[in-house]
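Narrative summary of target 7.
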Amino acid sequence: MGFLTTTTTEHKYSPGLEGVIAAISGISAIDGEEGKLIYRGIPIEVLAKNSTFEETAYLLLFSDLPTQDELENFKMDLVEHRELPENLLDILNSLPRDSHPMEVLRTSVSFLGHFCPDKDKDSRGANIRKALRIIAKIPGIIAAWARIREGKNVIPHNPDLPHAANFLYMLHGERRPEDEEKIFDVCLILHADHGMNASTFAAMVTASTLSDIYSAIVSAIGTLKGPLHGGANERVLYMLDEIGSVDKAEEYVLDALAHHRKIMGFGHRVYKSYDPRARILKEYAKSLSEKNNDMRYFEIGDKIEEVMIREVGKKGIFPNVDFYSGIVYHFLGIPRDLFTPIFAMARVVGWSAHVLEYLQANRIFRPRAIYSGPIDREYIPIEKRSG
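Modeled conformation, tokenized:
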């Protein structure tokens, strides 16, 4: 066969692996042309309206919706594993206060792997237990760091509260209104999985070597940390602040398009129509803006959407999940640099589900690269090299 080089004709190079099929999965699927997303066959709109994060997590991890007893046992398992070990809190207290929350989350999950009672076991049951421990503890890590860096006491988890409401309680030190807890619960559902995205693929690559699931989740967190994957909703808010008022929105968009600058929260590698998650979040952004008697962000965002769809909608560029989620989180009192960790809080379910699924018929990932360098190059002894 010889070297695989740029002169080889039988292989096609796909930058970023775009369009390359890397796995067969029954977890989630996206119809980018029609703007549809399903988890295990159920439309995301149906889950957002009827489900809870815990029920959706069970569905993604175990293929089917749970019975009442299965759901209660699953919820009890998550509550049982919420508590953060004291030595992890010591680590958090020792970190520089300007550490980014994603860096803290990456370090914390890696640290937890040292103390997992199943760390030397690689059965499916052990991997499920490891995944549940990570899913249960990530909200506490994020909330604890948010308070530690501000010199506040860490709030213990409330075993009577569900996953989403408990995080808001640990973050703020008090319950949020019930409607806000429900909105945040739906936000976690919307972010729980999204096919073969970069962080999911990173987790699967690590797991395919038969490394442990903690390492796989750390790989995913490190991948999500990159600004091309996570964090766009944070940058949407900075863009809205830069625009300042709705009367300046159209001029801003037109100028950005004329100078080929990206409008944050628009466009997606897969979707060529309106992201169904963005439709749901837009309604929440509007209702929370009205509730707080502060429509500025929403009105600027709505105007940006109008202009963008008019100008580039025909190219398949529409709002994605990030465009309105930042406004929602803003009104839930969540600091901007926690937006990406919250993404991880939800997506860890999808990461875990894909790892567990892939390991059932595992094959280590080993793509090839096309070589573009010289061949049969002469070796020159160092004493004869010029320069």
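Strands lie at 28-31, 36-39, 42-43.
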